[in-house]
Amino acid sequence: MGGPRGTEKAELPLTALRDGESGIITSVGEGHGGGHGRGGGWGFKKRLMNMGLTPGTRVTVVKSAPFHGPLEVSVRGSRLALGRGMAERVFVELTK
Amino acid sequence: MTEKKLTIALAGNANVGKSVIFNQLTGLHQHIGNWPGKTVEKAEGTLHFKGYTIDIVDLPGIYSLSTFSIEELVSREYIAVERPDLVINIVDASVLERNLFFTLQLMELETPMVMALNQIDMAEKKGIRIDYKKLQKILGIPVVPTVAIKGTGVYELLERSVEIIEKGEINPPMIKYGEEVEERIREITKLIEKIPFRYPSRWAAIKLLEGDEQVEKEIREIGPEILPTAERLAKEIEGIHGHSCSTIITSERYEAVGKIAREVQQIVPKIRPPVSETLHTLTTHKILGYPIMVLVVLAMFQSIFTFGNYASELLSNLLYGWEPLFGGLLGTGIVKELVWGGVVEGIIAGVTVALPYIAPFYFILYLLEDSGYLSRIAFLMDTLMHKIGLHGKAFIPVMLGYGCNVPACLGCRIMETERERLLAAFVTTLIPCAARTVIILGLVGAFVGIQWALALYIIDLLVIFLLGRLAFKALPGEPTALIMEMSDYRFPHLKTVGKQTWFRLEEFIKISFPLIIVGSLMIKLMEILNLLGPIANILSPITVTWLGLPAITGITLIFGVLRKELTLIMLATLLGTTDFARVLTPLQMIVFTLVAMLYVPCVATIAALVKEFGWKKALFISVFEIIFAIFVGGITLRLLILTKV
User: Fold this and answer.
1) A74 and chain B: CB distance < 8 Å anywhere?
2) Integer-rounded Cα radius of gyration of chain B
3) Beta-carbon neighbour count of residue B519 at 10 Å?
4) CATH dotted code for B179-267
5) In the predicted model, is pLDDT for residue A39 greater than 60?
6) Radius of gyration of chain A (CA)
7) B12: distance to nearest CA of chain A, Å?
8) What is the biggest distance separating any 2 CA atoms in chain A, rounded to whole angstroms?
9) Which CATH number is correct for A11-95, 2.30.30.180, 2.30.30.90, 3.40.50.1980, 2.60.40.420?
């Protein structure tokens, strides 16, 4: 896709959000080795889920650390640090 | 019933004040060991209450009850298999939703439970009010509000716990999933009920649908015919929802949790953000965060070394003062040499390092951890650590390594996977610890120039970077990205911090002292038997031919395995002078220091590696580092000669 930003219902990776922006999680990628939640990505995805990043949840990017560092996100009333590798696989729909 | 013994387990997410409650409950009657066969710590304590002797088991802090890390596995196995009389679930009131997620999973393990709703004061400060009576009613378990750090509610917590145990088994209502999921859970539950499985059947059924590897493995051994059915049913659910089965179950759990949280909590946003919030913003700031971190770390090392140098001198003066006493007792023969020079000096060496440096080191570190600052450092350093295939949390053991490699190796436990623990431990053994700093500054810094000492540090960082990257590529497996909670800053509980320091110190002593003593004894024996000269000669192809050093340095490098700073002291003894410029060329000093800096840290670190990773890996790392150090030393020598510096 050319420029997903700005369009109303585009799916964006969490890393595309600017500081202070929020989105509703649409899906969480499988990571490497995919499979139906049973492959190599199992631990990774499960971990994100267990931290509360489930589809339908609202998540806010508070800020990101410099030099392509991790994101600070706010989800379900808790504050999480998410490495880029994790955040890239969380897809959201931008909300106002 | 003559002896009324009870066992209560404490379970909860990380950073909810669990260890504070543990300390409030058990006071001084506690001990720390390891879970059988695991590197996970097991803290136990005893208390007496209303005629009962109660054993309190502090389960490791976790995020959920799925097998992602060893901590989680240990906890759920304990609850389901050892069946404590009761589980106290400790919950951080200021992050209720995330914590309740864990509560619901605990309930699925079908254990009697009481909830400690902790840190209610902090929640209030954030503007969060929780109707705990309503929560109690919804969950069907007693909920006791507590402020552990002040001891508030701890007595009542115990009272309610004993009450629940006396009343006998209560089965808290479990959450219900969507009917299409429930139906399939029931189907699998029926199958599991027919086999002698050690976990509750319904729980196991849910775990099978979630694709839990550990449960699958155990079921395969006793009822392999269940697995295809479970897989088929999971596929059916996936077909209905279009998400993976584990996603659906987790989502539904969170949905249930969200509903409860909305019902019981009232959030009134504060006009002025609490101090902890401001602190968080500052310490994770894009620009300001880094200078603050540098200042904090420098202040930490500065205070440790100032205190350490002072206390160490005081202690060694005191302890070495006993030598005449020993002389009087044992005479001046071989026995005295061995007992004093081998055993006692070994102990003194250990004591003068452990107490003055390691103890304050741990204390400050736990202070920083308990307050919440370490997770901010991990946040800031994540990018850098990724260059060597680790994430931000690995910076904590690395930082520890500059003080002493032993706690650093043990500190690698915070990493999530075995692979990362090993990788992080390997990197930390290359960090110049305080003892190596003594050599770098005392030899190169003092006699060649401070810029050369600095160059050595930079070389060391390059080496760490290169080897770290190599190891990261060589070790099978994938890197894990950072995911951690940054809980609110809070005032650390000094007693808990002190206790943690003490337990760590005890562990350090247990690991390092025996080896330091045996090592000192062996070297003393070699000295008495006049073996040092021949050994120096055997080593001379390496020391003289390859490294261009005097033959005698071979012996000092062997001594260095015991304690690195001994290398310098030995060098002075063997060369007969502390004016190293008279006996060594600047080039020799640089090469010598470089080798001393890079080869295996010391015997205590090797012991720590053995404890954490087993003999094979420890031996491999040690041998590799020795060969590598010698190799780099020789190359550097030739390079420096070539460039005629």
Assistant:
1) no
2) 28
3) 21
4) 1.10.287.1770
5) no
6) 13
7) 14
8) 35
9) 2.30.30.90
